[in-house]
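User: I've been trying to design a sequence by hand for this structure and keep getting stuck. Would you show me what you'd pick, starting by listing the structure so we're on the same page?

Assistant: Good idea, let's start from the same input. This is the structure you sent:
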């Protein structure tokens, strides 16, 4: 099957996580990603451990389906090569600190003159406006700045950063969505435009519920651990061996849970009869549920809960996912061969299309692997 973005060319001067994650999405969708890297060291993500065969796991994960071209963009000759590539490209994407793209000669106004149909994307830490726009920022810093860390962690405990780079990868998604929307509009107008997003804006959008809840109550939200501010019971509970997570979002499901746990009296208990009442009395309810679940194993309880239609899950360890039947069934982990790392499996995009291919075709490139190929084919250089 053809890929949705076949024939689209992207000039990518990003590094680290957010920008490369955005071009990973476009590359998996079929766009030709020309990844411009500096001589010697390349993308900073190449140095992020651990490594497989000398290749960074970070880099391997988010730089598949790309071509690595080494160009020193600080030199006059290097700039000219990039300008010539931009003239033939559909998309240009950068994640420099505020003002750096203009200093280097790759600002939006400059590149728009070279290619009026160019879609130009900027991913930054704090956005293009405001007093903090020039500040450097990384995922953890922005999780703190946008309030995400204030609601993450166990009650009474320290603030905790989410264990994955949610703002880097979330911003990458918004960038890709904006670019795709701009491509659709360009079909009508023939003219490109600038798409901007930031980790700051992504973080604020992720906590939208809490912003509204504060407006409603005037109270700062509290850390809930594995719990949920709006529902109860909704938490991680110990069993005789492993822990399980149970999520109850309505009274019908609570009735099923009460029956499985042998406590039908809870159904008419005024403390538990409605979700609002259960939220108010969540502490004592969680203690009662924990006491019952400790009488048997996680596997035994999960089987009973699943059969009754109660939403629940084991708390998976990362290693177990590599041999997980459901992971295998959805074919999320794609096998690829890398010349240095060997045979590896990496997650494809988490969606599929009935008439388009979104598979991973090519492992991440070695530094400069495609320099000669791209400059020969695109610019006619020897």
């Amino acid at each position: 099957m053809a890929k949705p973005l076949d024939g689209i060319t992207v000039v990518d001067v990003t590094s680290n996580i957010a920008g490369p994650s955005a071009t990973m999405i476009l590359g998996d969708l079929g766009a030709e990603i020309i990844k411009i890297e500096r001589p010697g060291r390349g993308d900073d993500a190449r140095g992020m451990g651990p490594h497989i065969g000398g290749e960074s796991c970070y880099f391997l994960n988010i730089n598949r389906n790309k071509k690595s071209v080494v160009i020193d963009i600080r030199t006059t000759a290097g700039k000219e090569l990039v300008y010539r590539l931009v003239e033939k490209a559909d998309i240009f994407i950068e994640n420099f600190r505020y003002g750096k793209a203009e200093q280097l000669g790759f600002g939006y106004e400059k590149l728009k003159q070279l290619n009026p149909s160019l879609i130009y994307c900027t991913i930054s830490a704090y956005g293009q406006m405001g007093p903090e726009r020039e500040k450097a920022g990384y995922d953890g810093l922005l999780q703190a700045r946008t309030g995400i860390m204030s609601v993450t962690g166990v009650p009474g405990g320290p603030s905790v950063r989410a264990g994955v780079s949610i703002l880097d990868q979330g911003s990458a998604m918004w960038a890709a969505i904006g670019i795709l929307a701009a491509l659709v509009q360009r079909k009508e107008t023939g003219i490109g435009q600038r798409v901007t997003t930031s980790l700051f804006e992504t973080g604020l959008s992720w906590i939208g519920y809490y912003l509204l809840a504060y407006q409603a109550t005037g109270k700062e939200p509290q850390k809930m651990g594995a719990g949920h501010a709006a529902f109860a019971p909704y938490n991680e509970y110990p069993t005789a061996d492993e822990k399980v997570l149970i999520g109850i979002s309505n009274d019908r499901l609570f009735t099923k849970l009460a029956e499985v746990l042998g406590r039908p009296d809870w159904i008419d208990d005024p403390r538990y009869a409605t979700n609002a009442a259960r939220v108010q009395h969540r502490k004592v309810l969680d203690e009662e549920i924990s006491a019952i679940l400790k009488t048997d194993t996680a596997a035994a309880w999960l089987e009973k809960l699943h059969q009754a239609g109660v939403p629940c899950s084991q708390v998976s360890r990362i290693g177990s996912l590599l041999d997980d039947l459901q992971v295998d069934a959805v074919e999320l982990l794609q096998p690829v061969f890398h010349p240095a790392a060997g045979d590896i499996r990496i997650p494809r995009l988490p969606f599929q299309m009935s008439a388009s291919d979104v598979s991973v075709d090519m492992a991440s490139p070695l530094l400069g692997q495609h320099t000669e190929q791209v400059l020969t084919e695109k610019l006619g250089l020897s």
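That's my pick for every position. To get oriented when you compare it with your attempt: The chain has a mean pLDDT of 96. Residues 33 and 66 are 5 Å apart (CA to CA).
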